[in-house]
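[agent] plan:
  1. take the single chain provided in the ticket
  2. run structure prediction with default settings
  3. attach structure tokens to the ticket
  4. add a short note for the reviewer (M.T.)
[agent] executing step 1
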Amino acid sequence: MSAGAYGPMLDALRGLTWPARLVPRSVTAGTHPSRLRGATAEFTEYRAYRQGDDPRRIDWKLLARTDRAFLRITQERATHATLFVLDASASMDFPDGPISKWQHACQLVVGLASVALAAGDPVGWLVAGVPHLGRAPRARRDTLADLIRTLDRVTPDVDAPLAPLLAGSVRASRIVIVSDLLGDGDAVRRAAGVQRARGTDISVLHVVAPEERNPPSAARLAEDPEQPTLRATLHDTTRVAYRSAFAAWRAEQARAWRALGATYREVSSDAPAARDIRAFIARRVEDAA
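[agent] step 2 finished; step 3 output follows
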């Protein structure tokens, strides 16, 4: 997908902010509140001076007026390093055409990355199956263009597990997994759980195609793109059973990820990416409230 294809979506996201769901510990200058208190200009409260406090933080004017020592407590602002873990397995290249799950996933990642970068947050990415294309989070001016070039070079055509990427050494304040979750789902959740225990904010954008929810009515042979030997014929009877099983599986994915403490959202590959991104961020704001 060319860089110009993202233009309308990026215009629709202009001015959108992506608040941190978990307060970062970083004190690198940014837009998110930090757990650490400092001496910036954003005043929050006064606190009585205690032995061991830094005397440079005493409000001397207040001391002169009241003859009591108080510290002027201020709130540091921090950046929120964001890492996208993107599924490039063969199942993402469905259905054929310009609205495949892969194309929609690329739109979601580029859109969210643009929002994060606009706030000064470093952005990085890992692509399952092509780890050499990964980048550690950074806030350089060319990061978004580099991301678009990277995604344009990827063709989802392999059985690419996600869990090893989450178990790697790259650290970030928040990790966003964009996948159809048809691969190593249990291993991915276990690896994400380890990251969550470290204080990392985990989000999952579960990309589903309309044709997966409701297969065409005509009889057809369905084939697993990652394991071509797995085939099944869909007809009126098996289609009903398939829809029921697929709905139950998606409900279980939502339950399991939310039980982990992650933000989970199912998105349809034929929906406008900007709408999905706005809804995703709005839900995160509600969860944090």
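[agent] step 4 note for reviewer: Residues 26-42, 223-231 have pLDDT under 50 and may be disordered.
[agent] ticket updated
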